[in-house]
Amino acid sequence: MLRGTFHPMKLRSLLLPLLCACASAFAQQTPAPKFSGFAPHDGAQAAGGNLIPNWNFSDPVPLKFYRYDFPYQGAYANNKGYISQVEYEGKKCAQISLPPGIAGNEGGKVETALVPAIGGATYRVEVSGAMTNFFAKVHVEVYAEDPRDELTRKDTEAKGPNISIMRIPEGDGHKPLVVIFRAQLPDPQGGGKWSKVEREFAVPPGGIIAGKPVKPVLMAIKAFTGGATPDAGKTYFTDFKLTKVKDPAPGSGVRVIK
In sequence order, what E strands does 89-164 have? Predict the structure, then answer.
């Protein structure tokens, strides 16, 4: 063998351990992909019939299945930075920590995973909240697929109010969505202690968007906090429950949503 010539087998034996070590190190340093939180959940009911996954924040992945990043909603472009998972007064929960000047403007919110909605069915919703110096509003929002194309939607909003907070863009396995119904719960009490609010509501069997009939497909619970103050503050939400209590009545009609 000539001096300076590499033998292929010898070169392979030298490089193989190095390549294996590099691959192992890369696998250990590469973080697991983060769950976007926007993909519709399959709606499999937990014990007791609750449709909301990770309803009490018991999953080891903080905030798993919750939706709090809304870059497509101008008023909530910075919302992601206000949300974290903590333990407060004995409960794991979502904390909304608003810096000075935010509560009196856009406020902050956290939403559950999207779960299937059945038109005409009746549901029961429960949420626990704890506020110090802010107020809270809790809704269930029911979505239909938006039949408008992007050009029509932009033209409509150019002539009226921007309704980006009522829409979810296409992605994560669903088409563009628009709110056709919302059910508001009683307001949780303040004072820094846990306060449970609840109600029943019926999902409308259908609606009309831009002259086209639509049907409910998905829904989520939204918890919002804000206040008539320039001060900073924190609000906490947990125990999100949504259960079906009654099937649709035979012969239900279509509700028109203007």
Answer: 91-98, 108-111, 115-116, 122-131, 135-145
State pLDDT tens for residues 13-37. 443 443 334 333 333 332 322 334 4
Rounded CA separation 173/162 (Å): 25
Contact 235, 134 (CB under 8 A): yes
The verdict on residue 81 lying in a domain is: yes
Sign of CA dihedral 106, 146, 257, 158: positive
Query: What's 196's domain CATH number?
Result: 2.60.120.260
Please report whether residue 136 resides in a domain.
yes
pTM of this prediction?
0.79
Residue 92 CB-density burial (10 A; 0-12 exposed, 13-18 middle, 19+ buried): middle
**Closest to 220 in 3D by CA, of 253, 156, 255, 172:** 172
Cα–Cα distance between 105 and 102 in angstroms, integer? 5
Report the alpha-carbon distance of residue 3 to residue 33 in Å, rounded. 49
Q: Which residues contact 4 (CB under 8 A, 6 or more apart)?
A: none
Q: How many CB atoms lie within 10 A of CB 175?
A: 13
Q: Cβ distance 110 to 68 under 8 Å?
A: yes
In a domain, 34, yes or no: no
The per-residue pLDDT for range 173-190, each reduced to its tens digit, is: 889 999 999 999 999 998
Q: Judging by DSSP bridges, how do beta strands 177-184 and 195-202 pair with one another?
A: unpaired
Q: How many domains does the chain have?
A: 1
Domain for residue 25, yes or no?
Answer: no
**Residue 18 φ/ψ, nearest 5 degrees:** -65, -45
- Range(s) of the domain holding residue 124: 47-246
